[in-house]
Amino acid sequence: MGHALAASALGFGIARFFLGLGEAGSFPAAIKATAEWFPQRERSLATGIFNSGANVGAIFAPAFVPWITLLFGWRSAFLATGILGAIWIVWWLAQYRGPTHHPRVSPEELQHIQEDPAEPMEQIPWKKLLAFKQTWAYAAAKFLTDPIWYFYLYWLPKFFDDRYHLGLSHIGLPLIIVYNVSAVGSIGGGWLPSAFNKAGMPLAKARLFAMFVCACLILPIFFASRVSSLWAAVGILSLATAAHQGWSANLFTTASDMFPRSAVGSVVGIGGMAGSIGSVLFSLSTGWVLQLTHSYTPLFAIAASAYLVGLLFLHVIAPGLPRINAAVSQGAN
Description:
This protein is an all-alpha fold. 77% of the residues lie in helices and 0% in strands. The chain has helices at residues 2-5, 9-23, 26-37, 43-72, 74-95, 107-113, 126-129, 133-164, 172-198, 203-218, 230-258, 261-293, 297-317, 325-330. The chain is globular.
C-alpha cells in the first residue's frame, strides 16, 4: 500500500523495496506448510494447487487493475491490491495451525500426513545448509529459471503492445488467457510425478522426468516473436507459462525431497534469493538487449533453453535428489 503514498521516483523505489521484502517470506512459508501437511508423494500436486493461486491474481489483475487505473488513477490500483493482501495476512494468522495442533485433524488423517519415515527435527543453521550440494543444486535451478517467469510477468504487456499494438484497454484478454492456462499447468505439472510414480517410477526419478517434460514443452517459446498472429503468440506463451508453473511446482518440491521439514523453509528462502538475483540481472539485460537488437527473439531463445540447462545443473550437482538426513547426523555432505 506504500506505493499509493509515493510522491516521487525515490519514494516509489523505497516502497517497492519493502514490498519485495515482505513478499519474500510467502513462498518459503507456503512450501514449509506443504511439507508439514502432506506426505512426500503428494507434495508436488499440493504445491501446484497453491502455486496456481498466484496465477489467479495474475488472471484478475489484467482485468481490474487497468480499469481501476483508468478510472481512479495508478495510486488507487496499488491501494486496492494492497488492501487485499492485508486482509489475507490477517486471515492466515488467525487460521493457520500445524497438523498436530489443528483441532479438526483426525488421528487417521494425521497418520496419513506423517506416513513418511521420521525426520530429525533440529534446526539446521544456514551456514551448514550452504555446505550441502543439494542447496546449491536447488539454488542454481532457481537462479536460471525464476527470471523467465518475471520476464513473462513484467514484459509480456510490453511485448504484446510492441508486436501487436495493443493499448492498455485491450491488453487484458491475451494476458488473462495466458495466466488462466498457466494455472492449469501448475496443477497438471504437480500431478505428473504421482502419475509417473504410480506407473512404476521411483519418486525422485518421476519428479525429474516431470520437470524434463515441462522443460521440453517450453521450447516452442523460441518462435513467439516470429509469428504474425496475436493468437498464435498467445497459444505459444500460454503453453510456456503453463509448463513453467508445472516446472516450478516440482522444483519447489525438490527442496522437501532432499531436506527434512525443519530445513525446507530456509532452503526455499536461499533458492528464492538466488532466483531474485537472477531476475534482477535478467531484467537489466532485457532492456539492454531490446535497445541493442530491437527484437525479443534473443530473450525468448534464453527462455526456451533455461529449463533444460537448469535441469542439467540439478542432475549434475545433486543426481537423483539425495536426502541429507544421514549426512546431517554425521555432520558431512
